[in-house]
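tool=predict chain=A
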Amino acid sequence: MWSDDEEQGTEPVEATWEEHSQFYRSFSRFMSVSEHDRREMVRVFFIEQDVPVLESSDIDFVPTNMLSGFFLHTHKAEVKMPSGEVDKPVIDDNHDGTVSIRYEPKEEGIHELAVKYNGEHVQGSPFKFHVDSISSGYVTAYGPGLVHGVTGEPAQFIISTKGAGAGGLQMAVEGPSKADITYHDNKDGTVSVSYLPTAPGEYKISVRFGDKHIKGSPYFAKITGEGRKRNQISVGSCSEVTLPGVISDNDLRSLNASIQAPSGLEEPCFLKRMPTGNIGISFTPREIGEHTVSVKRLGKHIANSPFKVNVCEREVGDAKKVIVTGNALKEGKTHQDNVFSIDTRNAGYGGLSLSIEGPSKAEIQCTDKDDGTLNIAYKPTEPGYYIVNLKFADHHVTGSPFTVKVSGEGTNRQREKIQRQREAVPITEVGSQCKLTFKMPGITSFDLSATVTSPGGVSEDAEIQEIEDGLYAVHFIPKELGVHTVSVKYKQIHIPGSPFQFTVGPLKDTGAHLVKAGGPGLEHGEQGVPAEFNVWTREAGGGTLAISVEGPSKAEIEFKDRKDGSCDVSYVVSEPGDYRIGLKFNDRHIPDSPFKVYISPAMGEAHKLEVAQFPTGCVQADKPAQFMVRKNGAKGELDAKVVAPSNNEDDCFIQLIDQDQYSVRFYPRENGIHAIHVKFNGVHIPGSPYRIKVGKDDVDPAAVHASGKGLGDVKTGEKTDLIIDTCNAGAGTLAVTVDGPAKVAMDCTEVEEGYKVRYTPLLPGHYYMTIKYNQMHIVGSPFKINCTGESLAEAGGQETSSVIVETVAKVSKGGNRTGVILPIFKSDASKIQSKGMGLKKAYMGKQNQFTINAGDAGNNILFVGIYGPKGPCDEVFIKHTGRNQYTVNYLVRERGDYILLVKWGDDHIPGSPFKVEV
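tool=predict ok
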């Protein structure tokens, strides 16, 4: 065995046993050998039990069990030079949790520095920097602010003008947000520059001297928004106009209205009942002049529509006339209300929207004084810089966005983050074996069921296999290309994440909005016990998945890749309290992230409790239901509450039946899936919260589909719509949310096949439309919508618009058709094979048989009919034996010639109709 001195170019020296041996104990498997990048000794481990007892110290021995040691390179860095060659910088461990990177460039031009930790790029990596060969007499710039930064934190760099002579210095920072620039002359020929970016993205920094760019200018800095938290409120202020004519309440629900400005901008507007009994509209005036209001029922104008409305100058919302007062827009304090006032009395009509972004999600309260003025109070929990966007009628008020420096004590929340690269899975082909895996520990597979619906609308049961304890896989073989819907249910209730989108063939879209996550670890957990959840990235393509856990204590996060586009994540925290779990894919939050999770104290006595006689199936609304809880000797207080789909909470009635048993009675008031929280001494008992279906209506988000131009490419200032088909999905709560560069005017009206949503975007960019049915995403939600065109409002942080509708059950579609809608079948009857004596000859009073093989004929319905001399035969029995194979038996009681018809959907199979002699 040799030491590692040969790496230094010195003469190799034989290693000694004493230098390189050490005892091996089993716990060292769990220890991190190298915390920072440094030279490590080669080790040979031997197990204590295998060391013989030595009589004399001069007797050698050879261990019977050898284990080789290893260490991790945790920090790695490399520089890509302009020539394309890669160079290694020097990494110095500062022994304080940080490292310094030193590099001596050998070429002039743009270099790329990649910094990795445990094989993953650190935030902002790879970094770009410019190297020039100027020694003196020219203006140069250097510093981290020219390369990278974080929103809400000052980015700094230095400009050196030593020996450059006379000339004016000019600086500009362009990017996704306004960035305040400050500078300080150091009186030594250098200037320190600082700018404060308020939104993530790429910023262009121009430095000019004597009207010419200095060498390397413009610089491009990558600003990330990691760890920033946003909160927003909106206060509506609309102009109201009464329209002639009396409309009943039933008619009002079937009407929709839109208003067109003189410039052609058309937006949906809201209809409301006025005190006079007439209908009126609410809208935000954006222009002076005559507007046209169209009120339609099922696409046709009502009487007197379109109406003319004249808007005068004082009614148009003007953000410049909004007066904002208060020191809270300059500085604030943590853990207290910081108040400022807004006066919109002279600013016309317009909605007010406020968003606050910073190190914590600041709680916002709005007090409307009903006279055009209001007070806004925000309460941050962490110190640092906050960005306040304040817009009126979709334009920034004077001074917005405001940068607020918040001081004070933080909450000492600790954050742990891991990053993993996700590879894109191979394209799935028609006819191949498809698999979707999920982990649900502690359940029985008997209660699991799965169905797969093809793009053509054909639903089939899918097979579920238990791969290992708690890990399940849904298997199916697709028969066509396109997006399939996979529904997975446990005790007739969709599991978290279901219904799933599963694309057969090339992916139409990729990105964070197509990542799904679900599992108990995103809902609740227990201190010191691993909390688990699933993440499905298959539909999103390849990218980087970042998982962060933030709360009162640091989390230990474990990640297991299932190599099929899904993964299993578990985390353990040592302190109870509120935690936030952030899931980002390619630096963008996935839907519903960050997740709020309450980690309860250690279960203690609560683990002894068990539930009995829990209602099976579904219970009825507005009728009491109950179950039993056995204490099994535990000492403490029992409490319970029921949480409805609308998030309304109600206490349960608990009654002591005997010394060790309680009756828990609850009274659900809504249809839908309720959660029943049962706690003992403030801690969830095993299995809590329990989910139960209330009501007979089988609300199924997997049956809801969205389509239309409004989900594709749209243009600013143009009203666009989409149809949400709720036929056969039951009655539920439809919630549509649009998140994008600006708020959108949006409404939702009932149509025959479901509901029509209309909206008008005002800013170009990407919008994400979330469609939920009874709080569950429909397949494809959120939808990514690309908007182009001119800016009709001012940008300033992401803004959210939403509309919620209580739907009615729909079962018809188009014309006067009623009942169930048949799916669109794709089949070919000519590929069906039939055989058996029963196709030619039959015997009286006996079972006559033949078989049908439709395995290659696609999907459809088999129809068999037999007609004889005196009418139909006595009985026909069709049995499906699997994979579109059928056995047909029939019984006849009269002699003569019979006609046998066999159809696959609307088409006869080859040979049909058959002539049968009896």
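The CA atoms of residues 82 and 110 lie 6 Å apart. Residues 231-313 form a domain with the Immunoglobulin-like fold (CATH 2.60.40.10).
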